[in-house]
Amino acid sequence: MTNAITGLWVALATPLEATGAVDHGALVRHVRFLTERGCDGVVPFGTTGEGTSFSAPERLAAVEALLAGGIPAERIGLGTGMPAIPDAVALTKAALSLGLAHALVLPPYFYRDVTEAGLVDAFAAYLDGVGDDRLRATLYHIPQTSGVALPPAAVATLRARYGHLVAGVKDSSGDFKQFQAFRAAAPEVAVCVGNEADIGRALAEGGVGTICGMANLVPDLVRAMFTDPATAEGPMRAAIGLIRGPFVPVLKSAMAAMTGEPAFGRVRAPLVAAEAGIGQRIADEIAGLSRAAAA
To answer: So where does pyruvate get bound (predicted)?
Structure first.
């Protein structure tokens, strides 16, 4: 698990200007807030960050803004997944040149009938193409969104071939048996969960933490899943249950209400922004959960 992502990392939502460009100022302010709340790192341009809707230059410009804003490179893991492997390689090389080591890497996600052997070949082409011992790749399993599952046996094969370059897996399936399958197949690989309610039992079974979206809204509650999961799990499930409808637009609407930053309420096509009233309702209910937890 050398230099893998561990602890509480936030799958960053991406604030947007009215023009649709990334709002770098709002992004830096948000990451500073999350760092102050005890988050260990951030991953821009994953699923919560609408990563597949942003070009490589846009992603890199956002990373540069975070670095210029004082966020250490070791606390940033960039979503580098692209359908074309050469594009993913080029983006990763550019991120490494900025001082980053961590990359969250989707499998190529257009063809849904690929085989395990094909996925091994694809990730091998990516790792060989980057060709840099500084890389610490976290392979990304979110088949309900990407349409392409990551077989645990493929992770084991890649780890055996590439060692610490294959540092981790993010399991966002929401199926705890899948987490256990990754742990069994590749015990040297650091496995993070995306489902916040599973953090406690994942840690108990050898998991290393989370890369999750709800930490954008309730970082204190997610942190409590590390320190007192028996107490925090009920409120955590309640908070997750408030996000009804398309996850990213609804989450971002709530963020806009809670932060006062309209930039968080905007999304990129093909997503459609949630109504402002939805976000305000969630913000009010989260405030109620926080008061109850503090009582």
So the answer is: 48, 211
Domain that holds residue 13: 7-227
SS3 276: helix
Q: How far apart are CA 148 and CA 115, in angstroms?
A: 10
What is the per-residue pLDDT across 58-113, written as a single tens digit (0 to 9) for each? 999 999 999 999 999 999 999 999 999 999 999 999 999 999 999 999 999 999 99
Residue 82 lies in a domain: yes
pLDDT digits (tens, 9 = 90+) for 190-225: 999 999 999 999 999 999 999 999 999 999 999 999
**Among 109, 126, 170, 252, which one carries the catalytic annotation?**
170
Establish whether 93 is a catalytic residue. Answer: no
CB of 164 closer than 8 Å to CB of 2: yes
- How far is Cα 144 from Cα 133, in angstroms, rounded to an integer? 31
pTM over 0.90: yes
CATH number of the domain that residue 91 is part of: 3.20.20.70
| Active-site residue, selected from the candidate residues 109, 111, 126, 140 | 140
Is the residue at 254 inside a domain?
Answer: no
Q: Is 76 annotated as a binding residue?
A: no
Known binding residue 48? Answer is: yes
246 within a domain of the structure (yes/no):
no
